[in-house]
Amino acid sequence: MKICVVGIGFIGLPTACLLASKGFHVLGVDINEDYVNKLKTNRLKIEEKNINDLLEKSLNDKSLTLDTKPSRADIFIICTPTPLDENKKPDLSYLIEGINSILPYLNKGNMVIIESTIPLKTTQEIIRPIIETMGFQVGKDIYLAHCPERVLPGEILYELVHNNRIIGGCTENCSNKVKNFYEKFVKSEIHTTTADIAEMVKLVENSYRDVNIALANELMITCNKLGIDPYDVVSLANKHPRVNLLDFSIGVGGHCLPVDPYFIIDSFPETSKLLATARNINNSMPKYIASKIERFLNQKNNPKIGVWGVSYKKNSSDIRNSPALEIVNILKDKGYCVNIYDPLVNGINYDKIKYESIMDSNFLIILVGHDEFIEEDYEEIASLMDSPIILDGANILEKINIPKNVEHYNLMKI
Ligand SMILES: NC(=O)c1ccc[n+]([C@@H]2O[C@H](COP(=O)([O-])OP(=O)(O)OC[C@H]3O[C@@H](n4cnc5c(N)ncnc54)[C@H](O)[C@@H]3O)[C@@H](O)[C@H]2O)c1
User: Fold this and answer.
1) What is the pairing mode between strands 363-366 and 337-341?
2) Does the active-site annotation cover 170?
3) Contact yes or no for 113/78 (Cβ under 8 A)
4) Residue of the nearest CA to atom 39 in ligand 1?
5) Which of 12, 178, 210, 383 is the S-S candidate for 145 at Cβ 3.0 to 4.6 Å?
6) 337 counts as catalytic
7) Using CB atoms within 10 A of its CB, is residue 338 exposed (0-12), middle (13-18) or buried (19+)?
8) Is residue 188 part of a domain?
């Protein structure tokens, strides 16, 4: 059975590799030619557990091939991005371009599966009509379904197999056919439903988390004003058997939580006021944290600052909507001299050498709690700095050995 995965980024590449390892012939397609070439020649290190070995093996045994254009297949899986535009409205251009690119290769009996996260009614009202303009009848000739992805970056290969899946077919026939396919590699429950419900389920999952984090963030700000420890409050409140507050943080980043709630807000603003408020709270966090940082910076003349961690979360290389990066940009815009170091993020601006980033600096601001930062020798770090102060936005101070004479503060507690 031949599978064509369209869009081989954070989600599509592990999906393509996994399916190749399960005995399918997989074509991974991406419009980014340079990226495809680097993948083909193993010139990219992907920050995702076990992916580099699996990619190399699948390319070597030819179970996976990569290209910039689709070709005929039995199953097409769409994993193209679905970002927001500058007005926080869904930008479906990549999705539609991806669907259009497979049209010349569609045959009767094919499945088209949308794994990208999409706004409400997109499968039935946007994608289905595009496919039907080719003369196919969805449900009879082509089996179309939305199967939202809910993996955790870093654990994607494991979760692709072990997470419960939701399959929202355009018709019952579509759901059943697509379910038969997922049953070949998913070891957990597979639930079939309608495409409309599957779309809403995915959006609700991330909106739920976003609202919960906004509650924790708002609570943290109140605790700061009150002068009490927000960590104590959350951990003791979570001792209640039916309370589960998520962690407060310097903000909410990535490609999912800061994006998906807007897909509901955009369609139903009147009935999404809580979602919109949560988004506003979480969006405001980097500014709030930056203002706390500034209170320290103002104590020194021309402070020199090293920032560690710019990805959107710990042990990740992903900088999309990164609150850490937003904080860095706020500080730079205000004219502060900021050196950045992140061992996981590739890119000219983020790869200052670790010691160079803090040499003679007055502040080390840790914004992301990568494991590497916890294992660091802070005696040595402090010795390279000039009257050092460490500011922690990642809640790792308790896990590290800070020399007694070094001033340090947890930015969430003050
Ligand atoms: N990253 C996650 O953790 C995650 C989790 C669940 C769901 N999702 C959803 O999965 C989808 C993909 O997300 P991602 O993180 O993998 O994005 P990504 O940006 O990492 O990868 C998408 C890839 O698609 C390529 N692309 C764009 N247009 C194309 C086209 N027309 N044809 C072929 N390739 C094309 C891009 O070049 C890119 O490499 C999004 O809808 C996202 O919301 C992501």
Assistant:
1) unpaired
2) no
3) yes
4) 9
5) 178
6) no
7) buried
8) yes
The per-residue pLDDT for range 10-59, each reduced to its tens digit, is 999 999 999 999 999 999 999 999 999 999 988 788 888 899 999 999 99
pTM of the model: 0.93
Say if 249 falls within a structural domain.
Answer: no
Distance CA 391, CA 408 (A): 6
Q: Which of 179, 202, 313, 354 is catalytic?
A: 202
Q: In this predicted model, what pLDDT tens digit does every residue of 71-82 receive, in sequence order?
A: 999 999 999 999
19 and 161: one domain? yes
For the chain, the domain total comes to 2
Does a structural domain hold residue 220? no
**CATH code where residue 102 lies:** 3.40.50.720
Q: Point out the domain boundary residue: 141, 174, 200.
A: 200
Residue 99 sits in which domain range? 2-200
* Candidates 17, 79, 256, 304; catalytic one: 256
Nearest CA to ligand 1 atom 30: 98
Q: Is residue 54 part of a domain?
A: yes
261 is written with which tokens?
């709630």
